[in-house]
Structure formats: C-alpha cells, structure tokens
Amino acid sequence: MLRLGFAVTGSFCTFDKMFPVMEALAAEYEITPIFSPVSASVDSRFGCAEDFIRRAELICGRTALREINQVEPIGPKQLLDILLIAPCTGNTLAKIANGITDTCVTMAYKSHLRNGRPVVLAVSTNDGLGTAAGNIAALLNKKNVWFVPFGQDDPANKPTSLVADFNRIPETLAHALEGRQIQPVLL
Predict the structure, then answer these.
(1) Rounded to a whole number, what is the distance in angstroms from the first to the last CA of the chain?
(2) Which of 167, 120, 161 is nearest to 142 (CA)?
(3) By three-state DSSP, how is residue 22 classified?
(4) How far apart are CA 138 and CA 133, in angstroms?
(5) Is the distance from CB of 147 to CB of 110 less than 8 angstroms?
(6) Taking Cα atoms as reference points, which of 133, 120, 187 lies closest to residue 160?
(7) For residue 87, cis peptide bond before it (omega within 30 degrees of 0)
(8) Distance CA 15, CA 112 (A)
(9) 182: confidence class by pLDDT, cuts 50, 70, 90
(10) pLDDT band for position 56 (50/70/90)?
C-alpha cells in the first residue's frame, strides 16, 4: 500500500470537502495525517480543532503529526511515497514558494521534496488571483509539485478567491505518482 502524507492547513471552510476525500483515500493509501499549527489549534465557526484532529486520526488510524521534529524524518527516512497538502492556504503557498520552513507542514513539504518525490497541492485561498498568484506561478514551475485542478469559487463576491476541486484529488495523486500534471489545471 502506498504511503500518503495528508497535510491540513487552516482553510476551515473546505474541511467539509476534505474529510470525505480523506475517507476515500484511506482505502487506497496508508495515510499519515499532518496538521499545521493553525489547523491544530484554532476553533472556528466551522468546528473545533481537536474534533478535526480526532476525526482524521480515526480515519487514518494514526496519530496526527503536529510538530516540526515529528515530520523532519519524512525525507531522510523516505517515510512517504507522496505528500498532499489539502487544503493549501495562501499562507502555506507563500512559505513553500519562498523556502520558509517554520511549520510542520512546510517542513514536511521540504523534507519530502528533497528526495524528488511528488507533492500535490489543493489550493484554497481568497487571494489566489491577487498576491498569491505569483506564488502559485512559482510552484507551477517547480519540479515534482503538482496541483489539484482549481478555479474561482465565487467570482461575483470573491473575485480573487481560488479553490481546488477536492473531488479531483484521487486522480491528481495518481497522475502525480506517474510524474504528470492532471489537465486541465484551471477550471
């Protein structure tokens, strides 16, 4: 069974889309859940952080990783076959595009990618067609980084917002494992 790192960042409004995907992937992959500091500690109108962590641990059958020192061995020990960051916020996009490694998710990215293994990003940011656009462009050009197809989720009310189609995560992972970007990437 392939080993998937499933990294979660703080775009809480997409968690209702993310968990069904995690459940479906659990039948195909051995999943290690990874929660960013924000996703692991902030209670929002969408739910309680500890409830989200418990749900992921129940689905994956593993304790969620929350600290940098827990994920650093991912690369040196080749613990994962593929890493998924879903949702991937604009903040996380900026950090990984600019080499900032200050959370467990950004460290998991750096550690895993150093072995030339695939990373899949499921964008969810209100600023995707604003300031975050440059970071998306930089990562589209990065070797072994693949995107779940994404598009504007509410062009009339949030004209710069972009969200990945979470239903396309399984096929994006399959393509990434073959070294290919699923197309079209823009919806």
Answers:
(1) 31
(2) 120
(3) helix
(4) 9
(5) no
(6) 133
(7) yes
(8) 24
(9) very high
(10) very high
Q: Which two tokens stand for residue 96?
A: 């990984």
Query: Which DSSP string do the residues of 44-62 spell out, in sequence order?
Result: BTTB-HHHHHHHHHHHHTS
- In the Cβ-directed half-sphere of 71, how many Cα atoms lie within 13 Å? 29
What pLDDT, in 10s, does the model give residues 62-120? 999 999 999 999 999 999 999 999 999 999 999 999 999 999 999 999 999 999 999 99
pLDDT (tens digit per residue) in 118-144: 999 999 999 999 999 999 999 999 999
Residue 84 φ then ψ, to 5°: -115, 130
Residue 31 dihedral angles phi and psi, to the nearest 5°: -105, 130
Amino acid at 76: P
